[in-house]
Design brief:
Layout: H1 2-17, H2 23-29, H3 32-52, H4 56-92, H5 97-126, H6 131-153
């Protein structure tokens, strides 16, 4: 138990250090979104550490790699959403089939990027944790996502909640 608490604290600190928000952004936002993000991050670390049964040595090596992967996935997601908005606008504005075809390709390519990122990081994870734990990582990500959606449906804390 003491070992897991140390792991969770270490992982949480590593995650905070990797936080992309600056102190100025936190002040401008009023801290509400940042508090939600930090709470979510802490919950995710605890959830993943327990589900993957990470040892302290594994956690120390795993979380920096995972955080780097997540940053890349976030950039890919941002590109995906931008491509989706462009595609949506083109359809609503009744653009030509050629233009829509091009935007559709861009959108599909953006979807493929996430899988490419996962493929890229699997060997990195395998250097740190067993194949079974790598498989559990992908399952845990989906279970955690569903867990968070369930909480939102039940009226849990939302990123836009204020004061």
């Amino acid at each position: 138990m003491k070992n897991q608490i140390c792991i969770l604290i270490s992982a949480f600190l590593l995650t905070l250090a990797a936080s992309p928000m600056t102190a100025q952004e936190r002040r401008q936002d009023g801290g509400n979104r940042n508090k939600w993000e930090e709470s979510m991050r802490a919950e995710k670390i605890a959830y993943f550490t327990e589900a993957l049964e990470l040892t302290s040595e594994e956690a120390e090596k795993f979380w920096p790699v995972y955080n780097k992967c997540e940053k890349e996935k976030q950039k890919a997601f941002d590109s995906q959403m931008k491509a989706l908005r462009s595609l949506d606008a083109a359809v609503r504005e009744n653009k030509s089939d050629n233009e829509i075809s091009s935007l559709l390709k861009t959108y599909i390519d953006s979807l493929d990027k996430r899988n490419e990122i996962d493929r890229k990081y699997i060997p990195e994870y395998q250097k740190i944790i067993s194949d079974k734990k790598v498989a559990k990582l992908f399952l845990t990500e989906e279970y955690f996502r569903r867990h968070q959606l369930h909480k939102l449906k039940k009226g849990g804390a939302k990123p836009t909640d204020s004061k």
